[in-house]
Structure formats: structure tokens, C-alpha cells
Design a protein that fits this description.
The complex is a heterodimer of chains A (136) and B (480).
Chain A lengths: L3 H7 L7 H12 L4 H11 L3 H10 L12 E5 L2 H5 L3 H8 L5 E5 L11 E3 L2 E3 L4 H10 L1
Parallel strand pairs in A: 1-2
Antiparallel strand pairs in A: 1-3, 3-4
Helix pairs in contact in A: 3-4, 6-7
Chain B lengths: L1 E5 L2 H5 L2 H10 L3 E5 L11 E3 L2 E3 L7 H5 L7 E2 L4 H4 L17 H5 L5 H21 L11 H10 L6 E6 L8 H8 L1 H15 L3 E6 L4 H18 L3 E6 L9 H8 L23 E5 H13 L1 H5 L2 E2 L2 E2 L1 E8 L5 E6 L4 H8 L9 E6 L6 E2 L10 H6 L8 E6 L4 H15 L5 H18 L4 H18 L3 H5 L1 H10 L6
Parallel strand pairs in B: 1-2, 6-7, 6-9, 7-8, 12-16
Antiparallel strand pairs in B: 1-3, 3-4, 4-5, 10-11, 12-13, 14-15, 14-16
Helix pairs in contact in B: 6-7, 6-9, 6-12, 8-9, 8-10, 9-10, 9-12, 16-17, 16-20, 17-18, 18-20
Classes of the chains: A alpha+beta (136), B alpha/beta (480).
The structure holds flavin mononucleotide, iron/sulfur cluster and FE2/S2 (inorganic) cluster (FES).
Protein name (chain B): Formate dehydrogenase
Keywords (chain B): 4Fe-4S, Iron, Iron-sulfur, Metal-binding
Family (chain B): Belongs to the complex I 51 kDa subunit family.
Chain lengths: 136, 480
């Protein structure tokens, strides 16, 4: 499976295939492009607007490529209670890594927490976050 | 000498992988098991039952030499001995995707019982247990199953709601990462009871470890639940997709907009077919209930809140983690006696129970028993039983603002009071925080909250006023 056609073939015949397809496309290409949306729409017999409507609804999907590494910093209540807002400055003091908000990683007893790809980080403080950002 | 270290996401986030590797390099036999749920102790290393807390790789030699300071026998820790672990009976003890471990710890007994007694008696058992949905609404599981069972259709579905979006909740994650076969067994029993052929576990994308464990466990147990088939589907970062009809739309590949009810999903759910939608904890409680009987489960709890609740202690709390206990325990016992108060050592200012839609509760109300009806009477919400503790440095105006902001970010857009009201709420709170026309803006906010409460289709717009208004009611000094 190394192309959009391959992904589409892999999901042929599945019930409700659109989200799994979009996840695979994003994983492979880093984003879901206009061209990809058109091709997906054609294969699934949907309009391009319908596919775009789904892509734009979900926070996970990007329509533009992101060249920088991405760190998702949890900004939900339990991490706020453990001081994440004080770390936002640290995150904003650099621009090499894109820092995005995320709402809960299920690590709410050991926050502040962050996700980088599939790697989870907990007990962040400004030193740890600085080190983590520098390592990406 | 066998070393056991959790491989759940929380333990890993706290450094468990590094510690496990260090033990292996030192020649020790390491077994990766589920988490005990004593999160403040992670990475917790279990050496023949004796625990070593917050271990780092450089402590490996001293631990192996028996020279490190231990916390004593883990299973005798007061945090554990005070619990009634039914759903979390295996926590800390078994390898999560080992069928051998599952078999040898009473696994599949519930399904075998259900197969012997048949669909009707299975539903009767669930009814007798008094089990209510653990996803928030507290609807009796047996009644939902009965509705789906009596619907006539060629296809029926079991959908497991594993979207767990509420801050301060992680019990679903711990089940999926720590005891996935139990969830699969619960789904298979549900399928047998209602006559479903296919099951979906809708897991939020923020849980990569849970997704991986569930996929492994589903593949390993496919032959045991056949002809029932289970499949994982991954969410895409939308909080509202935890609402059951939004979740069904998402599973169908659509925008996660909330559907009007009726029709009930039980009658017209996924792809228009009769569908059981249950939370992870609801389904995970089922194998125990079938194995031990409905009455045994109903013996725990109080009033109409039967059984146990895996309470999640989170936020600024000293002893955070998973505490499964019969309903009826008070908030104060959970926060102060068990949780040890704040992690910062400062005074507890308030707690939020039930996630982003739950009320803020001050310590003066800590006599509140954990019970669906008692909470509802206090304008509060048990929800998925997550408790976030805040110390006295919290700014409640900022928390109220965040509640509105979260609603604005996550609104599915279907109702105007939710979609526009929440944005308006953020603006109004910004004015209040800036000290502009405070009294008039507070009145406006109260009005706005009423409109959202009564003009919203689902609890996202409908319940966001609870954290906002409770913050204003209990902590007016933060707004003036
Ligand atoms: C905005 C919103 C978010 C929700 N999120 C979840 C969730 O993450 N997990 C869940 O099980 N239920 C969630 N629910 C409740 C579900 O709609 C539904 O009541 C539940 O899945 C039914 O299962 P149960 O009866 O086993 O609790 C949410 C409801 C709303 C309104
Ligand atoms: S209340 Fe909000 S989230 Fe719920 S259906 Fe209406 S717009 Fe959608
Ligand atoms: S609130 Fe940050 S991990 Fe749950």
C-alpha cells in the first residue's frame, strides 16, 4: 500500500470507509490534499463537497502540509489544574516546533501531558518541555 | 526473580519503557502488565509483589540488589485495600494481551454462562444487576438491551463508545490497555443477548496505545467470539463524537453531527439498524455480572445507583489514579481521605466532577454522596466519574471562560444557542475579566446560559452552563 489508489483499494467494500481512508491518507501524506479529496469522492460516490465537509469537521485532519514537527499540548481542565497554562509561554517562545492544543490524553493524574506522534509525555514542567521541544 | 512493570500509556509517559529496558539490560526477567492505577507511583516496579515507586533507570542495580527502599507489598497498599475492584480485578496483575493470563483469571466465564443460559436470561441478569450506563446518562443497560433484542431486523450492531473525551477520565483507556479481552467478552455477551452480528469499538485518536492493544486483542480472540466480529474504528479529534448519535454518524463516515431523537439508536442506530451503544465501562462490567450474578453486583452501591464505579482521581491531587468503589462514597472521602488533597500542598478550592460539562463543587458540598440522583439534585453531574481537583490558585473566571471556549471549539454546529451562544459567552466573560460592565455582563451570561440550557439538542450546549454558572455561584469573588 504505497499510494492513494492502494489505500482506496484496501478499504473497498468496508462499511463506512471514509474516516479510515482519511486517517490512512493523512498518515501517508501528512495531510489530505484537494486532489486526494477529489479522488476519494469519486471512488466512494460522494461529492467533493461532502468529503470536504467531513475533513473540515474533524480537528485531526489537515488540508495543508505541516513541515514542522508537531507537539500537542493538553490544555484541558485537569492539566490546567496541574499548571499547563504556565508552560504555554515556553511553547510560544520558540517556533521550530508547531505546538497545538489537544483536549485530554487520559493522563490527567500526571499532567501536564503532551503527545508527539504516538509518543506520550507526562509530568511536564518548563525544563522538561524545553528539552522535549529541542529534541524534536 | 520476576519484575513486573506496566506498559499502559500513563506508565510509559512516566518513563516505564526506559526502566523496563534497564532491567532487561541488567539481565532481569521483565513482564509488562496492566497498571494498578496508583498513578502517582508510576513507574511502579513490582518485584515479586513488592513495590518500588517512581523508579528511574539508575535505580535498577540497587533494586536488584535488594538495597532500595520499597513501598512494601503492592496488593496491601491502602489505596487498593479500600477499593471494591470488580471491573479492575485484574489491574496490575495480568499481561493485557495474554490469553493465558485472561483464561487463568476467570476470563471468558461470563460468556460461557451467557451461552448456557441464553439471551433472555442474560438480559434478566443484567436487569437484576441494576447496571446503569457509565458513559454519563446513567440509563439502565438491561432496558436498552431489551429494546434492541425485541427489534426485528436482519442486522444489529454493538457499538462500544470509547471516545472518552472528558478531562479527568481514563478508566476506559485503562480497560482497553489493561484488560481488552474483558471488553471484548462484554461486547460478545451483549451481541448474544440482543442478536447482533457485528461490533465496533470507536476509540478516540488521542489513545494510540489503546487502539494498538484493542487491535491485538481482537485478533487474538476472534475465534473465541465468532461468529460475532469486532472491529476498531478511530475517531478524529472531535469531542462531540462521544455523543452516541454523533458517534454513529462518524462511524458511517459522516460529519459528527448530533441526530435528533427519536428515533432511538436502539431501534434505528448504525446504518439505520438496531444498535446497542454502550460505554466501555458498561460493557466491561458485564463479564463479572454474568460470572457472579446480577444480585451480587447489585449488592454494591446505594439507592438506584447499583454496583461499583471506577472513579478517576485527577488534576491537582496528591494520590491520583483509579479508585473503583461502590456508589455512595462521599466526594470528601474521595478527594481528601483517599486522594490526600492537593498535590501542590495548598488548600483545595474546588473540584469539577463529570468532565467539561460538569459543575464546579466547593469543599462545603463535599458531603455529597456519589449517587446519580444526589448529584442531579445538587445541579451536578457524575458523568464518567472523573474528578478534577483544583487548589486555591485557580482563577474560576478563567475556568468559566474555558468551558465556553471548549463548547465553541467542539460544537457540532447544529443548534444556534450552542454554536453562537458559546462564542458570545467567551466574549462576555472576556469583558467581565477585563472589569467592563461586570453586573450587566453577568446578567447577560445568566440569560445566555438559560438559552443554551433549553435550546440545545444535546448536552454539549445544554450542560456547558453548569460549569459556568456554578463557578459564578460558588466563587463570585473571582468575577467582580
Ligand atoms: C457531548 C457529549 C459527549 C459524550 N461523550 C461520551 C463519551 O466520550 N463516552 C461515552 O461513553 N459516552 C459519552 N456520552 C454519552 C453518550 O451519548 C451515551 O449516553 C453513552 O454512550 C451511552 O452508553 P451507556 O449507556 O453505556 O453510558 C456523551 C454525551 C454527550 C452529550
Ligand atoms: S448542543 Fe451543540 S453539540 Fe449538541 S447538537 Fe446542538 S450544536 Fe451540536
Ligand atoms: S486533562 Fe490533560 S491529559 Fe486529561
Amino acid at each position: 500500500m504505497s499510494s492513494l489508489a492502494g489505500i482506496l483499494a484496501e478499504h473497498a467494500g468496508r462499511e463506512g470507509p471514509l474516516l479510515p481512508i482519511l486517517h490512512d491518507v493523512q498518515k501517508m501524506f501528512g495531510h489530505v490534499s484537494e486532489d486526494a479529496m477529489r479522488e476519494i469522492a469519486q471512488t466512494l460516490n460522494l461529492t467533493r463537497a461532502e468529503v470536504y465537509g467531513v475533513v473540515s469537521f474533524y480537528h485531526d485532519f489537515r488540508t495543508e502540509a505541516e513541515a514542522r514537527p508537531v507537539l500537542k499540548l493538553c490544555r484541558a481542565e485537569a492539566c490546567k489544574a496541574r499548571g499547563v497554562e504556565a508552560l504555554v509561554q515556553v511553547a510560544e517562545g520558540q517556533s521550530r516546533v508547531k505546538v497545538e492544543p489537544i483536549y485530554c490524553l487520559g493522563l490527567c493524574s500526571v499532567g501536564p501531558a503532551a503527545l508527539v506522534g504516538d509518543t506520550v509525555h507526562a509530568r511536564l514542567d518548563s525544563t522538561r518541555l524545553t528539552t522535549l521541544l529541542a529534541s524534536l | 526473580m520476576k519484575i513486573r512493570i506496566s506498559d499502559d500509556a500513563l506508565a510509559i509517559a512516566c518513563g516505564a519503557d526506559t526502566v523496563a529496558q534497564a532491567f532487561m539490560r541488567a539481565g532481569a526477567e521483565v513482564e509488562r502488565v496492566s497498571s494498578w492505577g496508583m498513578h502517582w507511583l508510576e513507574p511502579l516496579v513490582d518485584v515479586e509483589g513488592v513495590g518500588y515507586a517512581i523508579v528511574t533507570a539508575d535505580q535498577v542495580e540497587t533494586i536488584l540488589a535488594g538495597e532500595a527502599e520499597s513501598i512494601g507489598p503492592i496488593a496491601e497498599h491502602p489505596f487498593l485495600t479500600r477499593q471494591s475492584r470488580l471491573t479492575f480485578a485484574r489491574a496490575g496483575k495480568t499481561r493485557s494481551t495474554s490469553l493465558d493470563d485472561y483464561y487463568s483469571s476467570d476470563g471468558w466465564r461470563g460468556l460461557a454462562t451467557a451461552r448456557t443460559m441464553g439471551a433472555e436470561a442474560t438480559i434478566e441478569t443484567v436487569l437484576a444487576s441494576g447496571l446503569r450506563g457509565r458513559g454519563g446518562a446513567g440509563f439502565p443497560a438491561g432496558i436498552k438491551w431489551k429494546t434492541v433484542a425485541s427489534a426485528q431486523a436482519d442486522t444489529k450492531y454493538i457499538v462500544c463508545n470509547a471516545d472518552e473525551g472528558d478531562s479527568a477520565t481514563f478508566a476506559d483507556r485503562m480497560v482497553m490497555e489493561g484488560d481488552p479481552f474483558m471488553l471484548i467478552e462484554g461486547m460478545a455477551i451483549a451481541a448474544l443477548a440482543v442478536g447482533a452480528q457485528k461490533g465496533y469499538v470507536y476509540i478516540r485518536s488521542e489513545y494510540p496505545h489503546a487502539i494498538a492493544k484493542m487491535e491485538t486483542a481482537i485478533a487474538a480472540s476472534a475465534h473465541l467470539v465468532a461468529p460475532f466480529v469486532v472491529e476498531v474504528r478511530v475517531g478524529a479529534g472531535a469531542y462531540v463524537c462521544g455523543e452516541e448519535t454523533s458517534l454513529l454518524n462518524s462511524l458511517e463516515g459522516k460529519r459528527g453531527e448530533v441526530r435528533a431523537k427519536p428515533p432511538l439508536p436502539a431501534l434505528e442506530g448504525l446504518f439505520g439498524k438496531p444498535t446497542v451503544v454502550n460505554n466501555v465501562l458498561t460493557l466491561a462490567a458485564i463479564p463479572w455480572i454474568l460470572t457472579h450474578g446480577g444480585e451480587a453486583y447489585a449488592a454494591y452501591g446505594m439507592g438506584r445507583s447499583k454496583g461499583t464505579m471506577p472513579v478517576q482521581l485527577a488534576g491537582n491531587i496528591k494520590y491520583g489514579g483509579l479508585f473503583e468503589v461502590g456508589f455512595g462514597i462521599t466526594l470528601g472521602e474521595l478527594v481528601n481521605d483517599i486522594g490526600g488533597g492537593t498535590d501542590s500542598g495548598r488548600a483545595v478550592r474546588c473540584v469539577q466532577v463529570g468532565g467539561p460539562l460538569g459543575a464546579y463543587i466547593p469543599p462545603s458540598r463535599f458531603d455529597l454522596p456519589f449517587d446519580y440522583e444526589a448529584f442531579a439534585a445538587a445541579d451536578a453531574l457524575i458523568g464518567h466519574a472523573g474528578i478534577t481537583v483544583f487548589d486555591d490558585t485557580v482563577d474560576m473566571a478563567q475556568m468559566a471562560r474555558f468551558a465556553m471556549e471548549f463548547c465553541a471549539v467542539e460544537s457540532c454546529g447544529k443548534c444556534t444557542p450552542c454554536r453562537l451562544g458559546s462564542t458570545r459567552g467567551v466574549e462576555t466573560l472576556d469583558q467581565i475579566i477585563a472589569g467592563k460592565n461586570v453586573e450587566a455582563n453577568l446578567a447577560l451570561l445568566a440569560d445566555l446560559s438559560e438559552t443554551m440550557k433549553f435550546g440545545s439538542l444535546c448536552a454539549l450546549g445544554g450542560f456547558t452552563p453548569y460549569p459556568v454558572m456554578s463557578a459564578i455561584t460558588h466563587f463570585p469573588e473571582d468575577f467582580r
